[in-house]
Amino acid sequence: MNIELRNPKKIMKLSKLGCFHQSRLSFLRSFLKEFKDWKYNRDLFDLDEKGFGRAVYSFSKDKRIYSLICFANKINDNERSDRVIATKWDAAFALHDGIPSKKDIDRLSENVPKQEVGRMTYKELTLSRANKSIRIFNYVVECLAEGKQPDKNKLSEVGYLYRTTAVYGSGKFGLADRFRIKNRDEIYGPFRLEMMLVYLVRQFTFDQVNHIAKNKNPKGAVELDHEICKNLGIGNSTGLGMAPFIVNHPTLLNNWVFARETALKNVREIKNIKIEDAKIFFECLKKSLKNVDSWSSESDFQKNKINNLIVDLKKFINFLENDFSFEKDFAFNEIYLWIEENLNDECIEYIVSMMMEPYEKIVEPLIKNMSAEEDKFFNIPTGKNIYDLRGILENKYSEILKIDFSKKENSQNFWFISKNKEEPRLADRYLDIGSELEQPLAIARDVAKLYSRISNLKNSTKIGKFLLDNNDLRHIVRRVFITDLFPYAEIQDNTIGSNLMPIDMLRLKLSFFGAIKFDPRSDKWLRICMFQGAPLPKDLQFFDEHWVYN
Questions:
Q1: 336 contacts: CB under 8 Å, gap ≥ 6
Q2: Listed residue (98, 79, 100) closest to 90, CA to CA
Q3: Fewer beta carbons below 10 Å: N end or C end of the chain?
Q4: pLDDT value, residue 85
């Protein structure tokens, strides 16, 4: 059986992309697998009795060493904020290339806590900061100091001790540019170093609560239970700054989604499902219900999504138990056809992710192709003609070309860069000033403009000649030719329309990171959890690869 890849015009709608979930393809999961045989070490732990000070953690293999340098800072409660305008955080971190000297640590102590205001060097690879979930953090410390373990149910309400508010890389604020390290095999996969930083920060949070509790009660304190640690992750507070990434990196977006769609296709094409593979799928499915039940949110929009997901999952489990057999040929294809017919998108994409769980041999080769050498496709084929360009537009952008940009609601928003924080933001074109500073993120509008402008041109007109007279559309011409090569490169929606839900853009990217427990606080920012349930560093060599469902 030959299964067609799912249609990009359907899959690349934001309402669909905003239903994606973590999978074996997610970066944090592939990071753990890549680094499972690396040596982990805590090289420095110099905190005072209140938990303030410095610490260094490392991964090493052969001659390669990556070191996380942590700075735990004393701040007042009124200075603690997840907003991007914050200037102080409970802790700040830098991932250093190699073994940091005392001079390096002293230099970074002056810069890392300042974050965007500080300056790094090429020796630093990623930069981050984080705040305590103060209620949970203090509760855990008090419990440990009293010689008892914290209540698991109370911890599950939040799922973490700290949450990061940004993770920077690739040359920002003086950090090493990607070209310096892109050929290293162990970090060729997307965002490997960012995942490493977050993972090691997670371990720091456990060591910090243990340290503070021990100083509170040297004789009676206990350490946080190993299983409780595993069931805590790192939170993250993420806003609009993340959204334009998926617009600005079309080949990378394509490679992410293409890998996912290829995995689904390959699983659906399996004729005979092994008993053990069916068992893995079904067990992950049943276990996942508990995870979904613990997924709480203050957002009515998200509560509705969660409730519908739970209803659909129970419906699906009932179908598997009473009306289905894995003994039939192409069982996973039958499953997919049934969920498409009977379930909502949130649950469909949840199950699509889970269908990959038994199939390491299918997923593993795909992970290696999820990075992108974007500059290889930057040149515009100026020798092609308007006929070629028009054909791509009508084929790849047919839905987008239906949008009427003469209507105000279809141009309601504009994207701009915040002067203070150097971060993308969204504003109302008809209420807010600054539209003259609009960023080139209105792909649908620019596609429509391009199509209109070539409408009366001869088919034989060369692209090079067209660009001489229409240089303002060079960026979108380049993009159209890229999309012709990469079917999942383009979001098939209007990113400046009045009905835009930026949260869908955030969820798409975060699902590939490996985030769980999406908790929107508005349509423009949300909180998530990462590495919840993941093995601790000392357990990496022997861990259950399906840990996310445990």
A1: 264, 268, 352, 355
A2: 79
A3: N
A4: 66
Length of the chain in terms of residues written: 550
Query: Given this model, what pLDDT does residue 104 score?
Result: 97
Report whether 350 contacts 21 (CB < 8 A).
yes
Asked whether the beta carbons of 367 and 189 are under 8 A apart, the reply is: yes
Instruction: Tabulate helix, strand, coil % of the chain (nearest 5).
Output: 50, 15, 35
Which tokens is 491 given?
């979001």
Sorted by sequence, the CB contacts under 8 Å of residue 167 that are 6+ apart come out as 126, 127, 128, 194, 197, 198
β pairing state of 233-238 and 413-417: unpaired
233: nearest Cα among 280, 281, 277, 201: 201
Q: What are the phi and psi torsion angles at 70 (to 5°)? A: -110, 140
- Please name which of 315, 169, 145 lies closest in space to residue 219, comparing C-alpha atoms: 145
For 220-240, what is the mean pLDDT? 93
**Whether pTM exceeds 0.70:** yes
Query: Residues 403-428: pLDDT tens digits?
Result: 999 999 999 999 998 776 667 889 99
